[in-house]
Design brief:
globular, 5-stranded antiparallel beta sheet, 5 strands
Amino acid sequence: MDDVVGTLNDKRLTSAERRDRVSAIVDETFDFQAMSQVILAANWRKASTNQRARFIELFRELLENTYFSALDSYSGQTARLGRERVKGKRAQVQTFVITSSAEIPVSYKLRQKQDDWFVYDVVVDGVSLISNYRTSFRNLIKQKGMDGLLEQLQQKVAKLRSKQTPVQ
């Protein structure tokens, strides 16, 4: 969190450089495979190796591009660490994003792999990222199959990429 805020506050960086640095931080701390497995649930086991790899890649890009729009509107908000709970190889870290008008609770669910901790879910103001995507993707897979979901994700990512602000 400190690395992300420090990157966002570094005015020497262009918008593209900030995005790249935040992307690198996210890639090092988020477990996109675990997130993908939980989101797809039974559909993960049914998917081919190529479909799984493609889903992980598109899901990561979807999250990055969705939340990069929030980075572009960053204007000095701060974060406060709340309580931490550790139970075996699972943990939950509560934080609060402090804006000029509100304090937004954001909890990170983590799991330990080897000696490192990785985020596998983010709960913003009581809404789980994983649960939200699981519901919408499950319905899409029922209607269009796994390839249909991948096609829609590809289109969504392309649309989000095209909306990114130009390099400064």
